[in-house]
């Protein structure tokens, strides 16, 4: 159904994300996402994909999974007052590994916003692969932070995907067990979680191969415990058979791949021996199934290798060969002394014997035998509601922003007015004095009586909404331009404005 | 092969602590270079022989094939029992019969006897297929079973005797995978303090509190439909709250007709993202490259026009480098997108006219960077360029002082910068030449931690060898056959077993005994080394060459990790013994602590002169703590002062305030210190005396102020003291530290003993109080040598105090205090406030 063989790739990034700082000596550095971004920018990968800036996730969106109490706490917690509220901090497991840092809530909003936006894009079938390196925080629990993760963007994204997709597969190649996601979907058969991780005296302590899910979700959680020093070859030998078997049995209609880069060799916290090639192979392999795929980040604590890895995997996603010599960029010095893209494996011994891997794999296969063979999934017709996009006048918000505070890019973003408003003569002049219209200028507005009868229905609003129908490549989308003062706006929307 | 003798962090190694005993198995956590050699911080792995047979019996019998790997919320498994521990097993497991629980105490002794006969009691902890192997093979397999402990000790690396491998037992592998030499396995964690064996497993929790709500697929549509129906009333309520002007009814009618599709769309929130760049834009790669070059050229032009930039960038070369930074690239791409990928328009955007109204450039907003339009070329700069040279210097200085604590750096050095600016600058700075130069200077500090160490093969003969070490391959006949393999020929012979028995082992059996901690078969003298150790301990404890290494307990990896597999009943004699031991340890450590705390300054000075390590003693006396609490913030704000080490403390004000404190404040202070078992009377008495001392002091001071020429006579003395201080602070800051909050560092040896009487008063009072305080704090006390990296707060406080000490070196000699108040400092005040006066 695609016009070109290459995948349509969307990439989510917010320029602010690199500026969050977990604290002195903390291994988690959001800076790595910015470094990956700058690398792929200078490699020119930018030009091969759609680049988006996500809107920060709202409180309501985050509480679709997380408890209100927990998110409320994150929202209101203040690093300066941390010592005054010791008890609740412990309650949500904040403190040691998960410090309350300046802007922690915004950081969660960005990572969740990216994954949610990516999920809805996949839902609308606007992209084949969506990438959000800001996400992948797989340890966060429903009402608890854990392992440097505060909000579980993956769970939120999967919940979003489940609105359209009957079954979603989650694969985790972080060195740590993806316990947060596994726990969230432990009792459902609509999400299968597969995690490859180091096990034994290692965070978070869960992820035994015997751990297979509960109730309805029995056999819908797979865990591959590994030992130190696994290398590319061995990893490939287990990843491909396990995943192809899972794809056969479970038949997911969407896949989320957590690409935690702490499974790379030389990671500050990790103890595997993978190179970019072995790690990227997982992305390549999943791409070959032609199922909507979402790539999220995750761990990774040797930031030069993390950014290398995610840049390389972006290149894999867009099917682009990139040279081994790194292009010059702001953070070039981080990549010394060789300034190459690819990294060499270390000489550490691989404690995973072939026998161990094979016997573990066969025990996993044994579990999979219990899965009912899922019926093949038909491509579902898009739900019409998803094509309706609403825009409101956000100028009020802008007017009330404190001028002394540096605006976050997302706020700034909302303020962007399209230049076409001023320059496009083809635009009917009448619209200029109304609320700004957001759309792709290349596609001319269609007549109302175009074939989409169903959508015309939604235009018959009593309050005089204007409707513009637009034809894009694959999806027909309706834009409803609302007057700023429409009284029928949803409750949350109107509070958003004031 | 050099690799064999190269030991790295993370390797499993044999340690030889005593020549009689088998090797100990440890994992290297850290290698530190010290004066005496290389010290290894190692994690302990216990052999079976190190663990009480009673405990082993329980764990062996426990069926460790967990069927339920998850924890259901708030529901304890049925076979949970406090007495004999919590054995996760099948419900019909006969091992956990209640009768057995009761008898457990008696059985312990039985078990000890049994242990000499039997290898083990069950298959627990053995790999798959262990039930099918013979008794002897199983016995040997059991020798390879280890128990991890969460304890760390420090050992000299010279005791390392070779490498081995330790693996977590996998339930998927069978016996054959575990039978090779030098390969050990473990599955449980041993906690010697509580005498328990824990399964090192976390559990996924099941319950409403943990799972996400997922609708069922087949009921999907129905569920959704019903959900929307349910949602409608909620929405209405929301709107009622929003509009309180009585128009509800009309609205409701408005809302209802369009329900599902409309409302869902609002819910879906499709405006989740903003396009920043699109791929099918009609421009070729070359077009984009060309545009980027244009943007850079304009950037160079803009920088040459901008005064603040051109001043900073002396050469054209550097200007070009700055104009080629990523910000220009990002900016150019954003411009292209804004211009709808119209090359011509995008070029115009690069050089907008001064009036922004004409060119609606919201690019800065899109990229988050600030641009300046100079009435021609557009200038956009990142933080690296934005910062002025003084700002950069300030930042470097702050970085040296605070480390990477950007919150503090911002508060104290660069309050006009935002946190984001600072973080962005820091990472760019790290990639700059400036940082490379800076780093070279600091390189030397980081050398003490080693990544790996080369230890040559150990070739000294064991003291247990009989006769001379025979290095040839010729075998020697022995009159007594090898206790293990019954051979009579070997290259070397080693005495083994209690000396009365006169037993010996051949070369190969000796090696395997050392490594495996047992012979091929069960032997009555298997544990002979333990009894030897015991007799030595009992006989002449003083002659022990090396004190037991300090054990440092680690915290478990995750809080929910532990599942107790085997536990001795609380009244078990072994548990009681271990408790007693702990209590004794606590007592002894508190004793030594008290001894140190009670030292007079002179004694401490002597101790230092004798070459002892402590150069600086960090400790907070009860007095100092009381002062901190009792004084109002505006007089003494410790937090503020600790951030500003160059600020002198107004000791007059402190002394005055202390003298005028009323007793109720003192009492509340005393209570506030949360020392429940503290003798109130003594404390108050101490404070009262202190108060007297202070008031006397301030009286005396005011008289001297009048009499003497301010500053003159005292500044000399001060100078001398300063010189002495510098001398002392050069000694590396000691690692000794009380755990009481943020301790103000005190240079222990410093004492201006000019007033003998007062000094007497001070020591008389300080001794009992400090001793008492130390006793109370001792249980928490620890040697600060091994601050774990994860322990951020501790590390931080340690480094800040170090920084304080270092920064003090500079100001003292170069700026003799001109401030007159320096001359009045009494030793009491000085001792309270620790090193503060040095500034």
UniProtKB/TrEMBL annotation, chain A:
Chain spans, region Disordered: 424-466
Subcellular location(s) of the protein: Nucleus
Class in the EC hierarchy, top level: hydrolase
Record domain Histone deacetylase: where: 26-315
Binding residues for a divalent metal cation: 174, 176, 262
Superkingdom assignment: Eukaryota
Keyword Lyase in record: no
Gene Ontology terms: cellular component: cytoplasm; NuRD complex
Keyword Transmembrane helix: no
Active site per the UniProt annotation: 139
Family: Belongs to the histone deacetylase family. HD Type 1 subfamily.
Entry-linked PANTHER family: HISTONE DEACETYLASE HDAC1, HISTONE DEACETYLASE HDAC1-RELATED
Protein name: Histone deacetylase
Organism expressing this protein natively: Caenorhabditis auriculariae
Lineage: Eukaryota, Metazoa, Ecdysozoa, Nematoda, Chromadorea
UniProtKB/TrEMBL annotation, chain B:
Region listing for Disordered, in residue ranges: 81-127, 215-271
Compartments reported by the entry: Nucleus
Ranges of Basic and acidic residues composition bias in the record: 104-120, 245-266
Gene Ontology MF term list: chromatin binding; histone deacetylase binding; sequence-specific DNA binding; transcription coactivator activity; transcription corepressor activity; zinc ion binding
Family matches, as InterPro entries: BAH_dom, BAH_sf, ELM2_dom, Homeodomain-like_sf, MIER/MTA, SANT/Myb, SANT_dom, Znf_GATA
Domain SANT: start-end pairs: 382-434
SMART domains: BAH (SM00439), ELM2 (SM01189), SANT (SM00717), ZnF_GATA (SM00401)
BAH domain boundaries: 5-201
GO cellular component: NuRD complex
The keyword Zinc-finger is annotated on this UniProt entry: yes
Alphabetic keyword roster: DNA-binding, Metal-binding, Nucleus, Phosphoprotein, Repressor, Transcription, Transcription regulation, Zinc, Zinc-finger
Gene3D superfamilies attached to this UniProt entry: 2.30.30.490, 4.10.1240.50, Homeodomain-like
Pfam families: BAH, GATA, Myb_DNA-binding
Every ELM2 domain range: 202-354
GO biological process, one term: negative regulation of transcription by RNA polymerase II
CDD domains per the UniProt record, alphabetical: SANT_MTA3_like, ZnF_GATA
Feature: compositional bias, Acidic residues: 233-244
Recorded family membership: Belongs to the metastasis-associated protein family.
Protein name as annotated: Uncharacterized protein
Organism, as annotated: Caenorhabditis auriculariae
């Amino acid at each position: 159904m695609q016009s070109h063989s290459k995948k349509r790739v969307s990439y989510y990034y917010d320029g602010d994300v690199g500026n969050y700082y977990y604290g002195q000596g903390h291994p988690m550095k959001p800076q790595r996402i910015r470094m990956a971004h700058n690398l792929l920018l200078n490699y020119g990968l930018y030009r091969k994909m759609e680049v988006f800036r996500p809107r920060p996730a709202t409180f309501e969106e985050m509480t679709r999974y997380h408890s209100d109490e927990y998110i409320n706490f994150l929202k209101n917690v203040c690093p300066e007052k941390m010592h005054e509220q010791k008890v609740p901090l412990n309650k949500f497991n904040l403190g040691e590994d998960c410090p309350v840092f300046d802007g922690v809530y915004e950081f969660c909003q960005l990572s969740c916003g990216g994954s949610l936006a990516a999920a809805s894009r996949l839902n609308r079938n606007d992209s084949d692969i969506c990438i959000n390196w800001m996400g992948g925080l797989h340890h966060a629990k429903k009402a608890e932070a854990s392992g440097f993760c505060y909000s579980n963007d993956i769970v939120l994204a999967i919940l979003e995907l489940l609105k359209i997709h009957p079954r979603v597969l989650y694969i985790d190649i972080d060195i740590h067990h993806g316990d947060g996601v596994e726990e969230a979907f432990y009792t459902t058969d609509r999400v299968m979680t597969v995690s490859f991780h180091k096990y034994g005296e290692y965070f978070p302590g869960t992820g035994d191969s015997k751990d297979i899910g509960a109730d309805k979700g029995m056999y819908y959680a797979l865990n591959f415990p590994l030992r130190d020093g696994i290398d590319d070859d061995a990893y490939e030998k287990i990843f491909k058979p396990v995943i192809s078997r899972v794809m056969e049995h479970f038949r997911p209609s969407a896949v989320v791949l957590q690409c935690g880069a702490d499974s790379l060799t030389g990671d500050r916290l990790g103890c595997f021996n993978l190179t970019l090639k072995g790690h990227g192979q997982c992305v390549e392999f999943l791409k070959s199934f032609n199922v909507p795929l979402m790539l999220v980040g995750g761990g990774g604590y040797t930031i030069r290798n993390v950014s290398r890895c995610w840049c390389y995997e972006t290149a894999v996603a867009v099917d682009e060969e990139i040279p081994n010599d790194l292009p010059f960029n702001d953070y070039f010095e981080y990549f010394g002394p060789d300034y190459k893209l690819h990294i060499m494996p270390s000489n550490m011994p691989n404690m995973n014997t072939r026998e161990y891997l094979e016997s573990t794999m066969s025990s996993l296969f044994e579990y999979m035998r219990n899965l009912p063979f899922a019926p093949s999934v038909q491509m579902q017709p898009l739900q019409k509601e998803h094509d309706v996009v609403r825009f409101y006048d956000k100028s009020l918000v802008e007017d009330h922003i404190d001028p002394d505070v540096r605006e976050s890019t997302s706020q700034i973003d909302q303020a962007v007015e399209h230049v076409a408003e001023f320059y496009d003569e083809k635009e009917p002049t009448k619209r200029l004095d109304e609320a700004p219209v957001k759309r792709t200028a290349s596609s001319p507005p269609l007549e109302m009586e175009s074939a989409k009868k169903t959508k015309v229905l939604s235009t018959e609003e009593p309050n005089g909404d204007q409707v513009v129908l637009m034809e894009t490549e694959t999806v027909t989308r309706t834009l409803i331009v609302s007057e700023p003062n429409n009284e029928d706006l949803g409750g949350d929307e109107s509070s958003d404005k004031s | 092969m050099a690799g064999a003798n190269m030991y790295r962090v993370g390797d499993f190694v044999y340690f030889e602590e005593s020549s009689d005993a088998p090797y100990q198995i440890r994992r290297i956590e850290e290698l530190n270079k010290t004066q005496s050699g290389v010290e290894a911080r190692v994690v302990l792995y216990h052999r079976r022989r190190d663990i009480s047979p009673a405990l082993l019996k329980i764990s062996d019998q426990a069926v460790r094939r967990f069927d339920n790997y998850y924890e259901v919320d708030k529901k304890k498994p049925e076979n949970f029992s406090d007495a004999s521990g919590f054995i996760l097993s099948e419900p019909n497991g006969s091992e956990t019969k209640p009768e057995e629980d009761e008898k457990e105490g008696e059985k312990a002794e039985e078990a000890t006897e049994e242990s000499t006969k039997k290898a083990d009691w069950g298959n627990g902890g053995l790999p798959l297929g262990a039930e099918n192997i013979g008794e002897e093979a199983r016995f040997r397999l059991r020798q390879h079973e280890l128990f991890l402990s969460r304890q760390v000790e420090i050992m000299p690396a010279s005791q390392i005797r070779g490498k081995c491998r330790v693996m977590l037992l996998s339930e998927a592998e069978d016996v054959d995978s575990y039978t090779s030499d030098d390969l050990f396995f473990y599955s449980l964690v041993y906690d010697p303090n509580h005498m328990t064996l824990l399964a090192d497993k976390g559990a996924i929790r099941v319950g409403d509190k943990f799972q996400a709500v997922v609708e069922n697929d087949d009921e999907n549509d129905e569920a959704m439909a019903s959900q929307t129906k349910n949602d409608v009333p909620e929405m209405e309520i929301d709107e009622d709250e929003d509009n309180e002007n009585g128009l509800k009814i009309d609205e409701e009618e408005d809302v209802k007709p369009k329900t599902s599709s409309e409302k869902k769309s609002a819910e879906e929130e499709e405006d989740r993202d903003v396009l920043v760049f699109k791929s099918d834009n009609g421009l070729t790669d070359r077009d984009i490259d060309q545009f980027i070059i244009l943007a850079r050229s304009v950037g160079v032009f803009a920088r040459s026009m901008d005064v603040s930039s051109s001043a900073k960038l002396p050469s054209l070369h550097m200007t070009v480098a700055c104009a080629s930074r990523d910000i220009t690239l990002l900016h150019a791409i954003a411009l292209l997108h804004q211009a709808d990928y119209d090359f011509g328009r995008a070029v115009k955007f690069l050089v907008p006219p001064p009036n922004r109204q004409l060119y609606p450039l919201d690019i800065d907003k899109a990229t988050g960077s600030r641009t300046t339009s100079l009435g021609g070329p557009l200038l956009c700069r990142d933080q690296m360029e934005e910062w002025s040279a003084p700002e950069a210097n300030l930042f470097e200085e702050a970085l040296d002082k605070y480390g990477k604590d950007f919150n503090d750096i911002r508060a104290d050095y660069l309050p006009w910068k935002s946190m984001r600016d600072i973080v962005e600058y820091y990472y760019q700075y790290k990639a700059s030449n400036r940082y490379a130069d800076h780093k070279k200077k600091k390189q030397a500090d980081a050398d003490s931690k080693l990544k790996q160490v080369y230890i040559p093969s150990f070739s000294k003969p064991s003291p247990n060898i009989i006769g001379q070490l025979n290095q040839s391959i010729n075998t020697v006949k022995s009159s007594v056959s090898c206790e293990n393999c019954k051979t009579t020929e070997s290259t070397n012979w080693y005495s083994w077993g209690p000396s009365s028995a006169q037993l010996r082992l051949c070369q190969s059996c000796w090696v395997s005994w050392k490594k495996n901690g047992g012979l091929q078969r069960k032997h009555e003298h298997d544990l002979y080394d333990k009894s030897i150790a015991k007799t030595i301990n009992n006989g002449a404890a003083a002659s022990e060459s090396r004190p037991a290494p300090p054990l440092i307990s680690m915290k478990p990896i995750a809080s929910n990790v532990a599942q107790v597999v085997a536990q001795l009943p609380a009244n078990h004699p072994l548990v009681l013994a271990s408790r007693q031991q702990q209590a004794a340890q606590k007592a002894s450590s508190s004793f030594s602590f008290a001894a140190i705390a009670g030292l007079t300054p002179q004694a401490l000075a002597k101790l230092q002169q004798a070459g002892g390590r402590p150069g600086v003693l960090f400790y907070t006396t009860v007095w100092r703590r009381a002062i901190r609490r009792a004084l109002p913030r505006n007089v003494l704000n410790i937090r503020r002062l600790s951030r500003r080490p160059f600020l002198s403390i107004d000791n007059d004000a402190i002394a005055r305030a202390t003298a005028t404190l009323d007793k109720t404040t003192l009492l509340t202070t005393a209570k506030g210190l949360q020392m429940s078992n503290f003798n109130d009377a003594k404390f108050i008495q101490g404070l009262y005396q202190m108060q007297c001392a202070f008031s006397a002091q301030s009286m005396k001071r005011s008289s001297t102020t009048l009499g003497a020429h301010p500053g003159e006579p005292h500044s000399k003395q001060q100078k001398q003291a300063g010189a002495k201080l510098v001398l002392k602070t050069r000694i590396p800051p000691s690692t000794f530290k009380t755990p009481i909050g943020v301790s103000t560092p005190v240079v222990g040896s410093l004492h201006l003993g000019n007033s003998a009487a007062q000094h007497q008063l001070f020591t008389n009072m300080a001794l009992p109080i400090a001793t008492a305080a130390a006793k109370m704090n001792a249980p928490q006390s620890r040697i600060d040598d091994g601050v774990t990296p994860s322990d951020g707060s501790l590390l931080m406080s340690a480094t800040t105090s170090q920084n304080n000490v270092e920064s003090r070196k500079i100001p003292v000699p170069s700026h003799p205090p001109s401030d007159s108040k320096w001359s009045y400092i009494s030793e009491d005040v000085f001792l309270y406030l620790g090193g503060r006066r040095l500034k």
